Fold this sequence. Notes:
- This protein is an alpha+beta fold.
- The chain has 8 helices and 6 strands.
- The chain has helices spanning about 5-10, 20-30, 30-40, 50-55, 70-75, 85-90, 140-145, 155, and strands spanning about 45, 100-105, 115-120, 125-130, 135, 145-150.
- A 6-stranded antiparallel beta sheet has the order 1-5-4-3-2-6.
- It is globular and about 40 Å long.
- The N and C termini lie far apart (about 35 Å).
Amino acid sequence: MLKNEFYREIVGSDDFRGYDLLNYLMLKNRDFNDVVSLGLRTGFIRKFNDLEWDKISSIDYIMNGCFSDFFSFFKEGYNIGASSFVVKKLYKKYNDVDIVYGRLPILDDVICSTDNSHWWLETDEYIIDPSLLLMINPLYRDKMGYIEDERIFYEDLIDRKGKYV
Length: 165
């Protein structure tokens, strides 16, 4: 649930395109819809909340004058099909997070992922999916269909001083 009125107004409006992929996949595939709906009801999945939107909004990002901030990138739906880019921008905003590369078969035949490759962040508590804008309990990974091919561990993302590289 979004407590911040600004996020509630923007993310809840029809103009917000960031959830277009999730909505499309849930309409396209009844099984996926059932898995996500069950996860949302049982607490294994939640949509991005104020914490995630604060992290996203705090990232400095200007693209050829098109966006004044990273939140606008999501508002226009450019997070869809850009999981590797978004993950590389977002990982520094989390503590003890791994970058994971793999596949999400539900993305088969989806324009933004012709080879169904996908990137996400993962902590002990959540899979953080920047394309679907979902926080998913790792125990729910198999139900969602995530297949891990490669993981960059948190320890490999920091230098000896404990700062991200």
